Amino acid sequence: MRRRANMLIYVYDYRLILASIVISMMAAFTGLALTRGLSGVSDGVRHLRIAMAAIALGGGIWTMHFVAMLAMRFDVAVYYRALPTVASVLIAILLAGLALILMHFGPRTRLRMALAGLVLGLGIVIMHYTGLAGIEGCRAVYHPAGFAAAGGLAVLMGMLAIRTAYGRRSAANILGATAIFGLSVAIVHFTAMYWTDFMAAAGAPGPSPALGNAQLALVVMLAAFVISGAFLLSGASFLSAPQPAGAPALTEAPHAPLPPPAPETEPRLPYEREGVTYFLPAGQVAAIRAEGHYTIAYTPEGRVFCPWSISEAERRLGEAGFFRTHRSYLVNTAQVSAFERRKDNGLCLFDGHAHLDKVPVSRARVAALRDRLGL
After folding, report:
1. pTM over 0.90
2. For residue 340, what is the enclosing H or E element?
């Protein structure tokens, strides 16, 4: 409870506060777990998983905020208008989705990670103040320091959560980021609330809603729990696969047999599937793409997860015809079907690979690649 002159007194129902934080944690885990391994799935599945994760993360942000608001007990009857309340949850989902898109479509650089954390943090604080604008029965009085404090904390903790979750895509990192993200929502909420006071609204109170605040809080928490639980169950096989740290469950055709191994003189590429390591003749790999500390290999049958880093793959396969075209790509020059020059850089094109259309060639490597291709 806190009191300032001429302001309303309020107290919290701490049981609802605790429940809101638990739901926030569960939603954070759901969203971050569903995004693990997206680089190795089809584009349609990737878009679906990101949409589900955005709903889980954004919904978790909003649920914590809204239930914590419903946990406040004023001396006057307080309700929430529908339009700002709905707008706040949509903002949280939209910005959470944008942060995930930044991390899963394009190179995962430090700048993109920082930008994703910035977007995620802004989603928390913008959602908070948008939702607070919907309060009815009293009027919020804001203090400028609260905007700076809540916004700064939201951005810093959003960046920390993204960096933890995506530095290594391990189970430990996912759990660590879950704790950071789940707590960040509560920390930002109560920081903002510390710098917010409430005055009684002028005029007669509006009609009471059908549900009281406590009942509405239970309905919201139940809905968030059901949504997160359903999303987790939808990804049960993905979550339960005994993968190495950061390893996505990759392959477009999981039961399609790979070609028989080549003679021992040809280098072989290790790949992992459901906790078992197999070996693939390097000559059947068209390209290799960096995925954090690991790599994705493209074959005619689909994409497979390789435990090598891109640097180790380059060292081991350099004499087997593989060439580093970009900081994130190696190509098997024997399988390059065409080369396209684009101003200062270029593209390697491939035929017969449904999941590999083209590979970028950086400006500094164009000349060496052209020489390797005999151009």
Report:
1. no
2. strand 338-342
